[in-house]
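During the second half of the funding period, the structural biology subgroup turned its attention to how the target accommodates small molecules. The most pressing case was magnesium ion, which had performed well in the primary screen but for which no bound structure existed. We therefore specified the complex as follows and requested a full 3D prediction, including the ligand pose.
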Amino acid sequence: MSSDKKTAEPAEKLNKGAKRPEWTPEGGGAEFTTRLMDGISAVHDGIASSPPAARLHAPPKRRELSVDDYVAGVLSGDRTILSRAITLVESNSQAHSRIASQVVKALLPHTGNSVRVGITGVPGAGKSTLIDMLGKRLCDRGHKVAVLAVDPSSSVTKGSILGDKTRMENLARHQNAFIRPSPSGGTLGGLTRKSRETLLLCEAAGHEVILVETVGVGQSEAAVRSMVDFFLLMVITGAGDELQGIKKGVMELADAILINKADGANLLKANATRAEYGRILHYIRPATEGWETKALVCSAATGAGIDEMWNVIGEFMRNVKESGVFAERRRQQTLAWVYAMVEDYLKQKFYGCEAVTEARPLMETRVVSGDMSATEAAAELIRIFETAKG
Ligand SMILES: Nc1nc2c(ncn2[C@@H]2O[C@H](COP(=O)(O)OP(=O)(O)OP(=O)(O)O)[C@@H](O)[C@H]2O)c(=O)[nH]1
Ligand SMILES: [Mg+2]
């Protein structure tokens, strides 16, 4: 018994908080980073079903990259470095965002050369299935395709539209594809900033087609519209009231409405729905000057109609490039981005200000009870804010 205890002691001592072996010299560099396994709590019995040894170790600390490393890596299309650059852009740490902005700035001259397509639609419309099928076809034809997600719901649920639900299995396996789930956490404004910079990084890495998926709830459609050239609204045939379910505002953002799941018993119905949308579109203001919003059908599952849809996007791009609408839209989008970031910053400052937070309940009570007008309350809150920040 006592001898058991004796032999156990050194191991306990070694493992207790120790991440490196005792024999590592003081100040030893990366060449001495061999890590110790946890004692008997770790499983290594030589049986094949055990977790691989690598997982028993804490992951080795990755070498820090310089701005030049990031820039060179992204430009050479190195996917690992592209991923790390995106992680940097997504980070909320100030130190990271300083490096990130230098990386993005250095890469800017290499951006702008892709077709940016936004895809929205109600949950379950088939967005991910379409992206998987379309993306794979484009990759097979030699294009490099990047897929991004803007998912404001993920900041609440910590889920992600490209995460657990749909893995885009065909596309994910393709060497020409790069798939990035939505960053989690933060406001829609924050997510959009990150997604925009991610988009630029993907372009610099040579991706010629960028597909941005967003779930059709809330404000994310407008956010995605403001970062893409072509905006696709995916719908499905429903219980007869499907047209009412879609807000006119969202239809006005779309360059095409794609009725998905036009297969099997649903084919006839999908075609009828397309005709109906075709009629409605006459009364809707087109999203893009000089382009008539199209109503199309497809089956993301079988692939029918997908090439035709891609041809429509090609036709659109030729049209807007010739007319100058493309260049003007990109210019406007960049300017809008500047002010969106300014607004985001100001909002954060205002609502993050302690004096404002303290004053709000009283102001709100007074406004609601009619003791104070909304204008007076706003003026007072702004005065409090400006006094607080000195
Ligand atoms: N029959 C049929 N089923 C489809 C088609 N496209 C997608 N589906 C199915 O519809 C379901 C939802 O598809 P997704 O691609 O995950 O839909 P989504 O729009 O990405 O959904 P969220 O990410 O949750 O917003 C899945 O079970 C798909 O297999 C289609 O063209 N035909
Ligand atoms: Mg999806």
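Two results from this model are relevant to the next phase. The chain has 17 helices and seven strands. The pocket of magnesium ion (ligand 2) is lined by residues 127-128, 161, 165-166, 213 (CB under 6 Å).
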